[in-house]
Amino acid sequence: MAGMVYLIGAGPGDPGLLTLKAKECLERSEVVIYDRLVSPEIMAFVPNHVERIYVGKEAHHHTLPQTEIETLLVEKALQGLTVSRLKGGDPFVYGRGGEEAEFLVDQGIPFEIVPGISSVIAVPAYAGIPLTHRTLSAGFHVLTGHECLYSSGTPWDAVALSGQTMVILMGMGHLQEIVQKLIDCGRHPETPVAIIQWGTTIKQQVVSGTLENICLLVEEARLQAPAVIVVGDVVRMREKLQWFQPSVEIAQ
After folding, report:
1. Active-site entry in 21, 23, 57, 181
2. Taking every annotated instance into account, which residue ranges of this chain make up the domain Tetrapyrrole methylase (predicted)?
């Protein structure tokens, strides 16, 4: 009989944001297959006797291809083991959890989804930035850096001119191109922008500026991935609402 596979969201980094259900699943697991952004503090919830398999991915370097990760999940489950597939953020928000769940269904493996708090909402919150605000933004768009540059299905003029907040994940490698595209599509060069590196953790650092100067500020601060990019008037709220300050901030 096949074992159960739990597709678990580990949250954005702060171990206090791991859900109770996620913790319970980790504690009863026999195998944990985990990603790069899962912190040691969260892995500390995994009992010492549990097998741990690292499958983290970075740009241009994948420990295992996605297809092999999916096969590994099935192999372990077919051994009758309880498997936790632990991902940063939420497994169904740019986490390829949908693909893994689909593969498990195709192979007849039972599974459960354990949602996690996504960096989309948690990281701006830890920077004192509300994604919506009654007088500033009625909604928000979530995109990846790749989608910003290469997607043909995104109505960029409409998104850029909507006045709504934009949250861009995995965009640091193409920050200059993203900024220029937003300006070219009509977003004002003085639109506020915040870059939040290692959000919700003790390494959190925030650089705030505008579309016009954010690339220079990021270069001066030497910020790199992982980071969340927030574009829109709500960024101005940070000056009043910032509450989590584990490291130095560079603002302009």
Report:
1. 57
2. 4-214
